[in-house]
Each structure stands twice: as structure tokens, then as C-alpha cells.
């Protein structure tokens, strides 16, 4: 009776179909593996279409033999896919020990098409035809079905981002503009962003290039585990939600998703929600520290030691890793980031600092310090809160670079002169708390300054959420009074730019005769004097046109005029009273929804930026400078010009 029951149970299990990952897969013994097709998807990875799930890796090794050009080839079993797009044609994933010559993808280097691109169109099928998979009495040649479609190489950084044809996005997932982007656009944006991050530190970045760091992107409806480089990690528990595979110094390949790059939700069977946390940015920062920045003896590369020194350098000028280590030690001592994970290690300090520097991380909801977030989440806040970390990050990345692409199509650039084409895609992070964890005051104008004879700067006490509304010319009125405010006249204007989501510049039209100032200062000093023309005209054997007009504001060679001299000697002053009003034609709000108060006249103050001028004594070049630049710097600059031209 016992033998009969055992046999019946065995028969039941053998015939039973068990569900795996939503698909019914027959569990069988080692005699039932099948081969429906063989796909070569990269230079090393193969897919064998097999409707039967292997019991284990050994079963695959026992039954499949692979030859390349007729010779046995070693390979590694990676995983079995039967989810989503693989449900109707499940695949066994394998990796050849030796890569094949499959050619190059189509793509760009920066904005230009890469020379000799898309050689895989010819080389790929040839390489695939050389591969044969043998299963018992069955042999099948591989066919070329490339997983990746397009690649972009950073024009300066030389780091690559490669992606699939499925990296395109859907309009309904773009909650800001409702725009659908092509896969090329998304991949270009990822590559361009990495290029902007690292292109200012070519030698440090070259460490990463030489070490093989690269980024691969899967589509919005694909799992990061589909990246061929990481199929051995497949996990059925999180394949729909995992956003990034970070890579390691031993295998420096970061696998990320198009929806993470474009700050959107996923598509198809994937369950990745829209997030303001940039997972690719975090993974890149960590790997960049490990293979590019860390110059310690335990580092994977020379790191910052690779940067050569001149006779004018101190020994540690470019040892940014050491500067960061010193900042980390001080941050620990001061408990600067209480409870935050960036205090766990020097590497975490760099990674989280980079995330804040590039505004890849959301602010904590309550403005307090927590393990994952805190009140400091913008570059300006980091500069004020932890300058010892901010300075070496500027040395590595550049003070004015953000994660943005040369391809500006569809970006909300808001005319911003610094956050060009937006940091990360579309917008900055919400910013409602100051580094001291206190909430920022509601949005208000901090000052209105006359910064040039034709320009006004309006600066706000905190970031404005929507720069497009702020830069609406119909939202602003400028008025002038020549009689101490008894009467006011409207002044036509244009908006010429904005700065760090905190200020805008209003400018007089080019043809306007009216000026905000009178007298001469800064850049209003220019041109040639009658003495210049007499001594240096073409007729006198010089280079100035004979009919050159004399400038009434020309300086003598070697003459310096600062703002005080301009006021005392040249009659420089504000031209009457100037006031500005926000009219409220389109709402302007801060990140907390506080609206800017409308119809409140604000008086402008005379605070010129370029207020100093010096004319070099030998060749007469005009040198202009901001108000806070020492006079000696202008004189030294003039000397350099004179030496260069003479």
C-alpha cells in the first residue's frame, strides 16, 4: 500500500504544473529541457528560448554545449526569465567567457554622430552565425537580436550611456508638460548629465573611463535585471520595483531605468513610482568615488593623485579626496548631520554630499535630520552649511555645472543663467526649510537693485517654484519719477534672465533712450579719445580707423575709476526714483504654496555690479570688474594684457 501511495504522489507531482512568476511552468527532470531559438543579445550574452525552467545551473551545463566557430566555448549560467515579455517565450540566460566581435552601436559623441557608428548591423549577424548551441541531437545557430539600441559618449568626460529602444517615454507619464520623449532623447540626456557632472575634471574622470565605468539604461517597461550585464542577479521578489543596480569597482556597470532619468513612473508590468530621489545619481556618485576620486593607497585607481602639479601648486592642491576626508572629520566632530547616513563613512559623506550638490535628493518632510534626508538639499544650502565639503566638490565637479544635457528640447529652463536646462530633468527639489531646520518665511522680494544703467535685479528671500511665471514680462511694472514721487511714468522693459530661482533681471529695450542712472561708471567708460586716434590711426601708422568717432567716456591709458570716483568726478547717480511692482497677472509662489504679494510698489536702490574700470597703460585695454574686486586685481589683469599684446 505504501509503495502504491508513493508512486501515486510521484505521478501527481510529475504531471502537476506549478505557477512561477505568474506563468505556468512545468517542473520536470533533467531529460526535458528544450531549445526553440538562440539569440545573441550582446557580445557575450545569449538567450536560449526554452519553455521549461531548469532545475538548477548544473542541469544547463549538463545538457547544453556551445561552440564558437566550431570550437567548444566556456559559458556561465545566469538566470531564467519567464516574466512579462518573456512569458510566452521564456529564456535561459547565459554568458560566454570570451566576448565576440559584434561591432559598435549607433549613437553620438556629445551632439555629433559617432564616427563608424552602427557597425554591429554587419558584424553582429556574422558573430551570431558563428555561435551554435547543442542540446542532445539538436543544434541551433544563434541569431543577432541586440538588446541595446543606442549609445552616447560624453564629449569631454568620455563616459558612455547606452540604452534600449524601450527607453522612450509616454506623454501621459510626463505630469509637467505631457510630452513623449524618444529613447535617443532619454539616453542623450543621461549621457549629457553625466558629462556635465564630470567634464570639468577630465583627469579625475579619466580614472573612471580607464576603469571601465559605464551606464546602461533599460526602458520604462523593463526590469533592471534585464540588463544583460546583471542577469545573474535576477530576483523574482523585486524585479518590478528595483530602480538601479549600482555596479562595483570589479564590475563598474550601473544599470538604471529611463523613468528614473526622466523623473517619471514606470510602464507596463513594472511598479516603479515617480520619485524625486535620483537613484542613478546616487549609484554614479558612489562608483565615481571608488574608481575616480579616492586617491588613498586602498583605492581602485590613482584617484586625485593623477592630477599633475605645477611649480605654483602646493602638494595637496588637487587632493580633493583628502580635503573631503578633513571635512568629514570635522563634520563628525561637530555632529553636523545628526542621524543622517552620510556620517556612516567617508564614502557615504561624499555620496550624500554629491547628491545634495546636484540636488538629487528630496528635503525631509518636517525639515529635521533623518537617516535618508534633512533640511539641506540644495547647492546654495550646502555652500552655507558645510563649506569645507562644498569647496572640494566644486573642485571636482565645477561650481556652476548641473545634471543637464546639451539637448534642451522640452526643458523648463526658466531663463535661468546657472541652472541651464534644469538640474536633473524639469525642476529642482522642493525647498521649504533652512539648514537650521527652521521653515523659510513666505515668499517676498528681498531687494530691488539698479545693477547697471539699463538693468534692475529683483531678488527674493527664497526659491521660487515656477520660474516661467516669474519671467512673465506682463507680471512686472517699472516706473520712473523725476520729481521725488509726485508723478510716475511707466518704463518699458524686457526680462533677460534669472539666477538660481532666486532673482530675475529686468532690462530696458535696446532702443530706449531712458537710463536708470546718469553719469558714467563701470562699462559706460569705453572707446577712444582724440589722443588715441591722433597717435594710433591708420593715417599715423596705427590700427584705429581714420574715421573713428571720439568717445566722450574714453579713459586715459593707465587710468582707474572706481565707484566713489565715478560719483565724485563723473556725476554718477541714480536717475530720479525707480520703483517696481509685481502685478499678479500669473501667480508666483514658493515651494510651500505662498503667493508673492501683488501691487506693492518697491523702491530700487543704486547698487551697480560692474562698477570699476581700469585701462591698461601700454595697449589701452579696458578691464571691468564687480564692486568687490580689489583694485590691484584690475591692475594685474591689465599688466597681463599688456604683456600678451606687446
How would you describe what is shown here?
The protein is α+β, with helices and mostly antiparallel strands and 646 residues long. It has 15 helices and 31 strands. The strands form eight sheets. Strands 10-9-14-15-16-17 form a six-stranded mixed β-sheet. It has a five-stranded mixed β-sheet with strand order 7-8-4-3-13, with helices on one face. A five-stranded mixed β-sheet has the order 22-23-19-18-29, with no helix packed on it. A hairpin with a 2-residue loop joins strand 1 and strand 2. Helix 8 runs antiparallel to helix 11. The protein is elongated.
Compact summary:
With 646 residues, this protein is an alpha+beta fold. The protein has 15 helices and 31 strands.
The fraction of residues assigned to DSSP E strands is 15-25%
C-alpha geometry? elongated
Largest sheet descriptor: 6 strands, mixed
Overall mean pLDDT stands at 91
**In which range does the helix fraction lie?**
10-25%
Extended strand count: 31
- Biggest sheet: strand arrangement: 10-9-14-15-16-17
Distance between the termini: 111 Å
- The value of Rg in angstroms is 32 Å
Structural class: alpha+beta
SS summary, helix count: 15
Unreliable spans: 1-28
Amino acid at each position: 500500500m505504501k509503495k502504491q501511495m508513493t508512486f501515486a504522489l510521484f505521478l501527481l507531482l510529475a504531471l502537476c504544473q506549478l505557477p512561477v512568476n505568474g506563468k505556468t511552468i512545468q517542473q520536470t527532470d533533467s531529460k526535458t529541457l528544450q531549445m526553440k531559438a538562440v539569440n545573441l543579445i550582446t557580445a557575450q550574452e545569449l538567450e536560449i528560448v526554452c519553455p521549461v525552467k531548469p532545475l538548477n545551473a548544473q542541469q544547463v551545463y549538463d545538457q547544453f554545449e556551445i561552440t564558437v566557430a566550431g570550437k567548444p566555448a566556456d559559458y556561465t549560467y545566469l538566470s531564467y526569465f519567464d516574466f512579462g515579455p518573456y512569458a510566452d517565450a521564456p529564456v535561459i540566460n547565459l554568458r560566454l567567457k570570451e566576448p565576440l566581435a559584434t561591432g559598435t552601436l549607433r549613437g553620438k559623441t556629445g551632439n555629433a554622430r559617432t564616427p563608424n557608428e552602427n557597425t554591429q548591423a554587419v558584424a553582429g549577424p556574422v558573430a551570431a552565425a558563428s555561435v551554435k548551441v547543442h542540446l542532445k541531437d539538436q543544434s541551433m545557430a544563434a541569431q543577432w537580436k541586440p538588446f541595446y539600441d543606442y549609445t552616447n559618449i560624453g564629449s569631454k568626460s568620455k563616459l558612455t550611456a547606452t540604452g534600449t529602444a524601450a527607453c522612450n517615454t509616454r506623454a501621459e507619464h510626463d505630469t509637467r508638460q505631457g510630452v513623449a520623449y524618444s529613447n535617443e532623447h532619454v539616453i542623450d540626456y543621461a549621457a549629457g548629465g553625466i558629462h556635465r557632472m564630470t567634464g570639468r575634471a577630465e583627469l579625475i574622470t579619466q580614472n573612471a573611463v580607464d576603469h571601465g565605468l559605464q551606464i546602461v539604461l533599460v526602458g520604462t517597461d523593463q526590469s533592471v535585471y534585464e540588463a544583460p550585464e546583471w542577469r545573474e542577479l535576477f530576483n523574482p521578489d523585486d524585479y518590478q520595483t528595483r530602480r538601479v543596480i549600482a555596479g562595483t569597482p570589479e564590475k563598474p556597470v550601473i544599470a538604471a531605468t529611463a523613468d528614473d532619468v526622466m523623473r517619471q513612473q514606470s510602464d507596463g508590468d513594472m511598479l516603479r513610482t515617480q520619485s524625486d530621489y535620483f537613484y542613478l545619481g546616487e549609484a554614479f556618485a558612489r562608483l565615481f568615488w571608488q574608481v575616480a576620486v579616492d586617491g588613498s593607497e586602498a583605492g581602485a585607481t590613482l584617484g586625485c593623485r593623477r592630477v599633475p602639479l605645477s611649480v605654483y601648486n602646493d602638494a595637496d592642491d588637487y587632493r580633493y579626496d583628502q580635503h573631503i576626508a578633513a571635512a568629514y572629520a570635522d563634520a563628525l566632530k561637530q555632529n553636523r548631520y545628526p542621524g543622517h547616513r552620510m556620517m556612516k563613512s567617508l564614502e557615504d559623506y561624499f555620496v550624500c554630499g554629491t547628491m545634495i550638490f546636484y540636488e538629487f535628493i528630496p528635503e525631509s518632510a518636517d525639515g529635521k535630520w533623518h537617516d535618508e534626508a534633512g533640511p539641506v538639499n540644495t547647492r546654495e544650502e550646502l555652500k552655507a552649511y558645510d563649506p569645507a565639503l562644498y569647496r572640494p566638490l566644486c573642485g571636482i565637479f565645477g561650481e556652476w555645472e548641473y545634471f543637464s544635457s546639451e539637448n534642451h528640447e522640452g526643458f523648463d529652463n526658466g531663463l535661468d543663467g546657472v541652472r541651464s536646462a534644469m538640474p536633473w530633468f524639469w525642476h529642482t527639489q522642493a525647498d521649504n526649510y533652512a539648514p537650521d531646520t527652521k521653515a523659510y518665511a513666505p515668499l517676498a522680494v528681498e531687494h530691488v537693485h539698479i545693477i547697471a544703467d539699463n538693468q534692475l535685479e529683483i531678488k527674493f528671500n527664497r526659491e521660487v517654484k515656477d520660474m516661467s511665471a516669474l519671467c512673465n514680462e506682463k507680471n512686472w511694472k517699472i516706473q520712473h519719477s523725476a520729481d521725488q514721487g509726485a508723478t510716475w511714468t511707466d518704463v518699458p522693459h524686457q526680462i533677460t534672465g534669472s539666477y538660481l530661482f532666486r532673482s530675475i533681471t529686468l532690462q530696458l529695450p535696446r532702443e530706449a533712450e531712458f537710463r536708470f542712472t546718469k553719469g558714467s561708471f563701470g562699462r559706460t567708460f569705453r572707446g577712444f579719445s582724440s589722443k588715441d586716434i591722433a597717435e594710433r590711426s591708420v593715417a599715423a601708422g596705427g590700427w584705429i580707423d581714420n574715421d573713428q568717432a571720439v568717445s566722450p567716456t574714453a579713459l586715459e591709458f593707465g587710468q582707474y575709476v572706481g565707484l566713489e570716483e565715478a560719483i565724485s568726478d563723473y556725476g554718477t547717480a541714480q536717475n530720479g526714483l525707480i520703483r517696481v511692482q509685481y502685478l499678479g497677472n500669473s501667480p508666483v509662489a514658493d515651494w510651500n504654496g505662498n503667493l508673492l504679494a501683488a501691487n506693492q510698489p518697491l523702491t530700487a536702490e543704486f547698487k551697480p555690479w560692474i562698477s570699476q574700470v581700469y585701462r591698461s597703460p601700454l595697449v589701452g585695454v579696458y578691464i571691468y570688474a564687480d564692486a568687490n574686486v580689489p583694485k590691484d586685481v584690475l591692475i594685474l589683469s591689465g599688466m597681463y594684457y599688456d604683456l600678451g599684446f606687446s
